[in-house]
Specification:
Aspartate Aminotransferase, domain 1, three-stranded antiparallel beta sheet, binds 4'-deoxy-4'-aminopyridoxal-5'-phosphate
């Protein structure tokens, strides 16, 4: 008999996916679309996989209301490849970056190899516990880059600035969690492994106009965005399994009502957890209230109650809570409550916090 104990998966990424996506993916691994073959042992050029690719693109387009003057690409190399691919393609002289934590810093580091980086604001002085909102964007720069949700520090941009230049955003850890005004952005990118699907594919939503602004330097064919746009994300062999499972997960999201419906559920889940933390005499949230993430809830013991740590850890373990250890740069706990995380699991954790 398999272990039937319910595990509540709060992992920051790769992270929980819908049971629907897991079940459909397993079925396709065994018999893909009636071929009698596994989805990972047939040609990506065959009509069965082409349908998966078309459906995945269509689901992204309809879920996020992406207008036709934007391309939807499925690339490889993770969001981390975008950190250098973006400046390599689009940075002529200088670009503006908002520094809100580890992932922004990594993007900044890569961009510096291609030109001048203007850091318009940073919350580094307070260990990135808030999103700066008072800053100006140099309109002579080539683009403005920001990170919508800071997975490690548990902060999230609540309202995107009006950028006078191309706005490019890393949405790796909150894409599909809420509606977004796509027209504000020239490019959005996201590693799949939170709200979209398994690791191995990176979603890029890019305005077609952006191809015209390519910087004057040699860019390898594989790293040009229009290479993949022209080839329908099949210039080379795409990560077929990651795209297939993402397609199923996005289908699940569409079936439950799309991003508006999940936004309400996500807000409820975040409220359940943050109110348990705020009302607890023992814990404190690490992010400033106005910057709190609805995806990654970071909290620590108040110094005078640190002695309760072992008891809390044990209660969590017994209840099947998995993956809440905080990132080493923040410490404490991080509960990641992505789209597929059920409200009941969040309630289990909230009850432990309240009952401590
Ligand atoms: N940006 C953000 C906001 C992330 O959370 C992560 C990874 N968790 C990355 C970028 C890096 O993504 P990848 O591992 O796909 O390169």
């Amino acid at each position: 008999m398999t272990n039937s104990k319910k595990i509540h998966n709060f992992s920051a990424g790769p992270s929980i996916l819908s049971p629907y996506a897991i079940e459909k993916s397993i079925a396709d691994l065994q018999n893909f679309s009636g071929t009698g073959l596994s989805a990972i042992e047939v040609s990506h050029r065959g009509k069965e996989f082409q349908k998966v690719m078309d459906d995945a693109c269509e689901l992204v387009r309809s879920l996020l209301d992406v207008p036709n003057n934007y391309d939807i690409l499925f690339l490889q190399g993770g969001a981390s490849t975008q950190f250098y691919q973006i400046p390599m393609n689009f940075m002529k002289n200088k670009a503006v970056y908002l520094n809100t934590g580890t992932w922004s810093k990594k993007a900044i580091k890569e961009a510096k190899a291609y030109g001048e980086v203007i850091e318009c604001a940073s919350s580094a002085e307070s260990n990135f516990n808030y999103i700066p909102t008072e800053f100006s964007i140099d309109n002579s720069a080539d683009y403005f880059h920001c990170t919508s949700n800071n997975t490690i520090f548990g902060t999230q941009i609540q309202e995107f600035p009006d950028s006078p230049i191309s706005l490019i955003c890393d949405m790796s850890s909150d894409i599909f969690s809420r509606p977004i005004e796509i027209e504000k952005f020239d490019m959005i990118y996201a590693g799949a492994q939170k709200n979209m699907g398994p690791a191995g594919v990176t979603l890029v939503i890019i305005k077609k106009d952006l191809y015209q602004t390519t910087a004057d330097r040699h860019v390898p064919t594989m790293l040009k965005y229009d290479t993949h746009a022209e080839a329908g994300s099949m210039y080379n062999t795409p990560p077929v399994f990651a795209i297939l499972a993402s397609m199923h997960n996005l289908k699940w999201l569409k079936d439950i009502g799309g991003v508006k419906a999940i936004q309400n559920i996500n807000e409820d889940k975040a409220n359940i957890l943050y109110s348990a933390i705020d009302e607890s005499p023992y814990f404190t949230g690490t992010a400033e209230l106005s910057s709190r993430s609805k995806m990654n809830v970071c909290f620590v013991f108040k110094p005078e109650h640190q002695d309760l740590e072992d008891k809390f850890n044990e209660l969590c373990k017994t209840a099947g809570i998995s993956g809440i250890k905080g990132h080493r740069s923040v410490g404490g706990y991080r509960a990641s409550i992505y789209n597929a995380m059920p409200t009941e699991s969040v309630q289990v954790l909230a009850d432990i916090i309240r009952g401590l």
